[in-house]
Amino acid sequence: MAIVVVLAGSWLGYQQLSDKGCSGAIQLNVAAATEIAPAIEQVAKTWTTGGANVNGTCVNVNVTGVNPATMASTVALKHGVSLTGLGAASKTGAVPDVWVPDSTTWLMRIRSEASGFQPTDGASLAQSPVVVAMPQPTAEIIGWPNRKLGWADLVAKMTTGNALRTGIVDPMRDAAGLNGLLALGGAAGSSPQAKAQQVGALRTLASGSSSLRDDLLQKFPRSTDPADLASGISAAPLSEEDVIAYDAEKPVVPLVALYLDPKPPALDYPYAVMPGLEVSTQAAATGLREALQAASFKDELAKAGLRGADGTTGAGFEAPIGAPKAAAASSSGSQGAAAAGLDAGAINQALGSWAAITLPGRVLAVFDVSGSMGTKVPTANNLSRAAVTRGAASQGLALFDDKWAVGVWVFSTEMNGKLPYKEIVPISPLTSARGQLQESVKTITPKEGGNTGLYDTALAAYKKVQDTWQPGRVNSVILFTDGVNKNDDGISRGTLISELKKASDPRRPVRMVIVGIGNEVDANELDAIAGATSAGGVFIAEDPAKISDIFLEAISSRSGASR
Q: What's the whole-number mean pLDDT along residues 200-209?
């Protein structure tokens, strides 16, 4: 999904007039990831000292180093959304004119929640490959630097009896952690055994996770004492720049960087010009962007342990042992290695897996068992829609951590007297009800001749979760349906919308997520239902074989917009 476009030329050109001078001032505020901010600031200083101006008006540039997660929260709040796992942003936080996060993934995550977020430019300023950082003694034991390893090898080592003590910076708060998670997901096979192994790897990572990069780095061993080596972190996905910066401090136990295949998306430092700027400010942003193309900028990046946008390096760059050839580090040109290989759906699926394992939550899963759920799915070996949904439900339950509570309903028409829905398992802690919930999946079987009592079921499920709402958890309804409402004895759409709006309570928020299965659903109908609640969204799995992927997206996304 393309979320950034190249900024079109403006009628306000910019000039660098060192001899003619300029008057007035345009203030350009730039917020950049802390590691790249000094390089941008140095070039901006040179540019403005040389007389940077827009049609005779001087340009002043203020560059601030800021954690990308912090700024992502602020930008998201500006557009009326929040990102899962980041918490609430300060309402007093200022959105810059230009934002240079460490990865395009931040822009994609905000865009997936807020369609109005349309930054321009977006071209990469720099690059840092995502690697697996390891203490040198540990790496030598497994064959570094001569042995070539892949992410599949790492997964296997994480889930054996003598598992690596892995760590990760929370992927919801850190782009290198997220990109490492994407690589792990890409390395997993599709067999039940491979999926189980992947879940095991995720749980191992979660047990050693940190909310901040500095916290994780402190967990690496500080001495060669065997006890210290045994108790410290032995592997973690980080950026190449992290390893370079860590080793620059000359630690007793240096880190080495493992460049595993398949290569995860690199950190690509996009130059994102925020929407809604004055034309003159946009022109100033374009001028700075041009200044950053100077060869001197690549040398400034090298001082920070960063590569240029094309993967080549400036003067003085010291690559870790085993690093890829500088000219071959990127194949995506100025757009950056990450932007070319990222997919919003894959990002949300990875974050959904992480959320299921690490976040406490309560969810009522509501499954359509109307007659149409017996329809065969050609892309799933002609299994029925119900059978594919059972598989997705079973996989989802296996992924959820014991911190979750889950309930199961099924619905059609006349499932419990005149009621179109039936409770199979009440919302119960997985610590005590996991077996019962796995058994309940078997009840997702089509009711012959059954229609779809969607409206009554959606309202009842929403009120049930709200009535039993618990603080400190994500309280959700995830409803799966393959059709439109057909229930002669039920309420109207107008009544449903009115009742949902009345029930909505900001003190007890409930996410209403609807997963449409197949091509017979009415997206407008589902959007109207989810839109009547304070938080929710709609995901359409036109190919029912993709329900498992959509299910993971639904867990992580605050609003939902997959089509």
A: 85
DSSP state of 139: H
Q: Using only C-alpha atoms, what is the Rg of the chain?
A: 26
DSSP string, 10-74: -SS-EEE-TTT--EEEEEEEEEE-TTTHHHHHHHHHHHHHTTEEETTEEEEEEEEE--HHHHHHH
Backbone φ and ψ of 315, nearest 5°: -65, 135
- For residue 105, which of 306, 250, 272 has the smallest C-alpha distance? 272
Dihedral, CA of residue 28, residue 31, residue 32 and residue 38, to nearest 10: 60
Digit-coded pLDDT (tens) for 320-370: 988 887 654 443 334 444 456 688 888 988 888 888 888 888 999 999 999
Alpha helices in 188-305 (DSSP H): 192-207, 213-217, 226-231, 240-248, 279-291, 295-303
**C-alpha distance from residue 75 to each of 39, 179, 316, 421 (Å):** 23, 21, 35, 41
- Longest pairwise C-alpha distance within the chain: 87
Query: Is 458:479 a contact under the CB 8 Å cutoff?
Result: yes
Residue located via tokens 């099924």: 410
Q: Which residue has the tokens 């295949």?
A: 261
Q: Which residue has the tokens 């910019």?
A: 14
pLDDT digit string, tens, across residues 103-156:
999 999 999 888 889 999 999 999 999 999 999 999 998 889 988 888 888 888
Return the pLDDT at 3: 38
pLDDT of residue 395 exceeding 80: yes
Q: How far is CA 102 from CA 90, 238, 278, 289, in A?
A: 21, 12, 25, 16
Confidence of residue 517 (pLDDT cuts 50, 70, 90): very high
Q: How confident is the model at residue 561 (pLDDT cuts 50, 70, 90)?
A: very low
Please give the single-letter amino acid code of residue 301. Answer: L
Strands 405-416 and 511-517, how do they pair?
unpaired
Which residue, 529, 533, 481, 477, is CA-closest to 362? 477
Token reading at 98: 């230009």
SS3 sequence of 483-517: CCCECCCCCCHHHHHHHHHHHCCCCCCCEEEEEEE
List the beta bridge partners of residue 365: 408, 478
Residue keyed to tokens 């460490």: 102
The tokens for 238 are: 């980080």
Tokens coding 339 = 């932007």
422: β partners: 410
The pair of three-digit structure tokens given for residue 425, joined into one six-digit string: 């398992």
Q: 3-class DSSP state for residue 270?
A: strand
Calculate the alpha carbon distances from 538 to 224, 453, 497, 531, 562 in Å. Answer: 53, 18, 15, 9, 7
Which tops the pLDDT comparison, 397 or 14? 397
Is the whole model's pTM more than 0.85, yes or no?
no
Distance CA 113, CA 520 (A): 25
Task: Name which of 370, 362, 352, 363 is nearest 481 in CA terms.
Answer: 370
